[in-house]
Amino acid sequence: MNFPSSFRILIPLLCVVMVNGCAQKPMKMYSGKELAPVSVAVVQSSGALKTVLPNAASVVVTAINGKATNFKETTGQHAFAVLPAEYELQVHLSRKVDSVIAGNTVAKQYITKKSLKFSAMAGRTYKIYGSLYPQDTFPWYTWVEDVSNGSVVAGKKPDKR
């Protein structure tokens, strides 16, 4: 099929715009001019999406060092750029648990807020995880991992079950 030359130029351009438009850059959580990615750290959460971990909870960062992230589920913003420093993250965790009571399935939403402190290093990406283990009288686990090496830099990761 022969396309006019304007279509041959337009189609690759649209593909580039669509790919770049879907990849959101992290929300800047520091003052001053925007810095290169190697000069900042990125903090990510699973947001409203569940991870593939067993008993995973939805994790949303609500504040970084007291500064609100203004998270809105509709925007899907789950990554934040921060300067290298010590940080305290306020996170909101939730998990739906289905139980069978007298032959009926009952869904209950459990929600909690947690605080995590850690040191962010330039050029690194950190991922926040959360889980709830109802069988252990509802203990919540919250932790931060360095994506580059999988090490836990804050909180407690549950033992593998």
Q: Multimeric state of these chains?
A: single chain
Unreliable stretches: 10-22
Mean pLDDT: 78
In spatial order, strands of the major sheet run 1-5-2-8-9-10
Largest sheet: 6 strands, mixed
Our measurement of the CA-to-CA distance between the termini, rounded to an integer number of angstroms, reads: 56 Å
H/E topology pattern: HEEEEEEEEEE
Model description:
With 161 residues, the chain is mainly β. It has one domain. It has one helix and ten strands. It has one helix spanning 5-22, and strands spanning 27-28, 41-45, 58-64, 67-68, 79-82, 85-101, 104-120, 125-132, 140-146, 152-155. Strands 1-5-2-8-9-10 form a six-stranded mixed β-sheet, with no helix packed on it. Strands 4-3-6-7 form a four-stranded antiparallel β-sheet, with no helix packed on it. The chain starts with a helix and ends in a 6-residue tail after the last strand.
Summarize, please.
This protein is mainly beta and 161 residues long.
